[in-house]
Amino acid sequence: MADDFDWNDIPLVLALARSGSMSAAGRQLGVDASTISRRVAAAEKALNLRLFTRATTGYQLTDAGQVFVERGEAVYGSVQSMLLASTREAETIAGTVRISAIDFLFDHWLVRHVGALCARHPALEVNLVADNQNVSFARREADFALRLAPPADDAAVLMRRLGEIGWAVYGAPAYADVPREAWGTQPWVALEEALAHVPEMRWLARLAPRPRQPLRVNSLSTMVNACRAGVGMALLPCIVGADEGLLRLSGAEVTRELWLLSHRDAVSIGRFKLVAGWLAQLFDDSRAALCGAVR
């Protein structure tokens, strides 16, 4: 088999075999007759075969050409079927979509809306992966990730800033009458020391006088439960505090950006395009609650 044969020449050979005319084959394919002549000659040279003979009635297939066309029709038909099936698959809203995010975004936001999405698209399967670690889109560890900061480096990632999420001060009823100027004299539930760099913990460190932190945790749900139990005040995502029935004691003290990350190839797949649009629209619809503009 000739290694330098161009498979793109198959439809040209087939068109010439059907029409028997360079000009007619060119019109059928939307190319110049000279292009048909040049490419058919190149195919014959690459195959070291004579595919056509020139007769008064037009171009006629040789015996070798007849075999080529019979097999070529089957091959070309299979390729067309493959392309059509691939296109339909790319446009179909079916299959699995993996979304990675910090757990409070699932528990207090997405899970309330994902049921309606799946009801509209019953062949869609959504996997929610609670994780705030970096994921590799190059290795397809997730299809989408909701993160509070964009990744430092990942050549395969497509980034979209959705907006902001707000954090406010919450407390049990015993803290309802504590004025802002006395916050530093109250106990606070804080994140563990390893998370001292995050914006909400830097905000807490700036309180004066520096408040006691009798309890440090590495779980937001634990922080919420400790705050509800009266262990101390806490800076919590507004959407979380509102759900847990805690008293909101301030406006949004800290805001953090929410980024939607996906693989660059996701824009060409139907189910991924749908989910990306759904997530963006869902954020817009929930913007006020997420950023803490409403109580």
TrEMBL record:
Residue runs in coiled coils: none
Example of a GO MF term: DNA-binding transcription factor activity
PROSITE patterns named in the record: HTH_LYSR (PS50931)
Keyword Ligase carried by entry: no
Domain HTH lysR-type: 5-62
Family matches, as Gene3D superfamilies: 3.40.190.290, Winged helix-like DNA-binding domain superfamily/Winged helix DNA-binding domain (1.10.10.10)
Signal peptide positions on this chain: none
UniProt KW keywords: DNA-binding, Transcription, Transcription regulation
Gene Ontology process terms (BP): DNA-templated transcription
Statement: the UniProt record of this protein carries the keyword Zinc-finger: no
Family per record: Belongs to the LysR transcriptional regulatory family.
Protein name: LysR family transcriptional regulator
